Amino acid sequence: MSLRIVVTVKYVPDATGDRHFADDLTVDRDDVDGLLSELDEYAVEQALQIAEDADDAEVTVLTVGPEDAKDALRKALSMGADKAIHVEDDDLHGTDAIGTSLVLAKAIEKAGYDLVISGMASTDGTMGVVPALVAERLGVPQVTLLSEVSVEDGTVKGRRDGDAASEQLEAQLPAIVSVTDQSGEARYPSFKGIMAAKKKPVESWDLSDLDIEAEEVGLDGAFTKVEAANERPARTAGTIVKDEGEGGKQLAEFLAGQKFI
Ligand SMILES: Cc1cc2nc3c(=O)[nH]c(=O)nc-3n(C[C@H](O)[C@H](O)[C@H](O)COP(=O)(O)OP(=O)(O)OC[C@H]3O[C@@H](n4cnc5c(N)ncnc54)[C@H](O)[C@@H]3O)c2cc1C
Known about the structure:
By secondary structure, the chain is α/β, with parallel strands linked by helices. The protein has 7 helices and 12 strands.
């Protein structure tokens, strides 16, 4: 039977661009270019390697995000994923991590899966909690933060590297894993892959397709609330200490004034 792998991929604002908050203190996603979260490229790569090693496997990439999030799906398809699912709904605006995990879990169940692969964290929210939340909702084991992962005889195995030790972990499928940026360089899409991606199926689902009520997600359904946010102040010119015999003293005074020493 085919091994069904679902990879959760997030469309994130480009970190190199100027990012702002909208009036409701959510991230202004209209005003900035986005891309597939770089950390999710590692998840796609591991899914493709597992699929290549399996006799029969299918890789589906799944995102919850606005219209432009299709760009993230296209990138993953051009890397080699077989098909994509885009969950998009105006009522998702302001959804927090708990709401996102609800939508992902319902979509994963609807898609059908043996193995879910996520990134270690998104490059915008960087909470690193979604895979655990999804595992809890699906009622399956979670094996997180793997720097090596493989599937054999219905079991997913992997290595988690900590500061002091490395652990070998395994779980029976169905399961969810997250992989780190140490799991192996993600491949670049080839020209052939980019052309092939244009013809691969992308399904679009909204909340009603997943039997989710609007109140369960969005700002109203969020358990977390942003109370205030301030733009980072513009950089000011630094203080230059010229050494004319008293440089060391001036430097020490400056550092003491800033409470660094
Ligand atoms: C349109 C929209 C508006 C949002 N507005 C807000 C808001 O106002 N306030 C707020 O707190 N949150 C909002 N969110 C949710 C937020 O962007 C995060 O998706 C969510 O909080 C998860 O946190 P994180 O990014 O830190 O995930 P992490 O836990 O760091 O992510 C770990 C992994 O989970 C997977 N993952 C995470 N998010 C997604 C996703 N959306 N689609 C697919 N896979 C995913 C990826 O594999 C990722 O590598 C919004 C989301 C959407 C789609």
